[in-house]
Write a sequence for this structure.
């Protein structure tokens, strides 16, 4: 049996990645760092163990967005493609070639949710990232 491999990349194509297997979790993040770094009301991430995520084309630029977290993005087009923390890599779902196959399961950091941005999905919500 072969494992699912999901490819993706940045807007301009300079960065390409592959994520292998099924993600551990998928969710919306409404934190201020995701809002500011993406310019969007929220980001949707798919959490993988680091070893299941790899760059197959290009080298990302890296920004340490907190003491533990870092954002990997394309220095040419500016797409923020992945977030890394500890032993995990979270590519942003919008950067996958087929984002439809990655459905969010929960919302985190809703304490900073932008009030006019609402998704009527009935998914569990955490004020912070307390699983
Ligand atoms: Zn790019
Ligand atoms: Zn966030």
């Amino acid at each position: 049996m072969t494992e699912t491999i999901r490819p993706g990349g940045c807007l301009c194509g300079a960065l390409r990645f592959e994520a292998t297997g099924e993600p551990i979790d998928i969710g919306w993040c409404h934190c201020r760092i995701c809002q500011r770094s993406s310019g969007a009301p929220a980001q949707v991430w798919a959490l993988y163990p680091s070893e299941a995520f790899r760059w197959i084309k290009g080298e990302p630029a890296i920004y340490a967005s907190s003491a533990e977290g870092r954002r990997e993005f394309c220095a040419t087009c500016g797409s923020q493609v992945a977030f890394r923390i500890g032993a995990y890599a979270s590519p942003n779902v919008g950067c996958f070639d087929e984002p439809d196959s990655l459905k969010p399961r929960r919302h985190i950091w809703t304490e900073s949710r932008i009030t006019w941005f609402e998704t009527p999905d009935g998914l569990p919500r955490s004020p912070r990232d307390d699983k």
In short: The pocket of zinc ion (ligand 1) is lined by residues 10-12, 14-15, 74, 76-77, 79 (CB under 6 Å). The helical segments are 32-38. DSSP finds one helix and ten strands in the chain.
